[in-house]
Design goal:
The chain starts with 9 loop residues before the first helix and ends with a helix. With 128 residues, it is mainly alpha-helical. It is built from five helices and two strands, in the order H-E-H-H-E-H-H. It has a two-stranded parallel ribbon with strand order 1-2. The radius of gyration is 15 Å and the shape is globular.
């Protein structure tokens, strides 16, 4: 997604990134989606209405609308930050992209991402 300007905080950044992921997954045509986040606030916002009137509530409502209308099934899992290294690796990569830049991997996942996924899976057996 590249750099995102005018973000107010980490929750805002995570919410926009999550929303873009939901949009992409819906367009590609997947019937189900699992959202994994280390943000309990984001998970709560996606699973309830309690944050719908928050400053970025419109983003929460849009994400929930897409989840309910685009997928047969969806799940939201909260994991510990240490078990969410892939998201942080991709966020760091995105910060270094040009504004508005987008990168998709349809068939082959870059080696660095595969390596971090393997590390996260191994760590999840002990920590997550």
């Amino acid at each position: 997604m590249g750099q995102i300007h005018f973000l107010t905080d980490a929750l805002h950044a995570e919410t926009i990134t999550c929303l873009k992921g939901i949009e992409f997954t819906a367009v590609v045509g997947f019937g189900s989606i699992i959202i994994e986040t280390d943000s309990t606030m984001l998970a709560s916002a996606l699973l309830s209405n309690e944050l719908d009137t928050a400053r970025i509530g419109v983003l929460f409502r849009e994400a929930k609308f897409l989840l309910f209308t685009s997928f047969i099934e969806f799940k939201v899992h909260v994991c510990k930050r240490v078990c969410n290294s892939v998201a942080h690796l991709l966020a760091t990569h995105g910060v270094h992209m040009s504004e508005g830049g987008t990168m998709y991997w349809h068939d082959v996942v870059p080696g660095i991402v595969s390596s971090v996924v393997a590390i996260d899976l191994a760590a999840s057996a002990f920590v997550c």
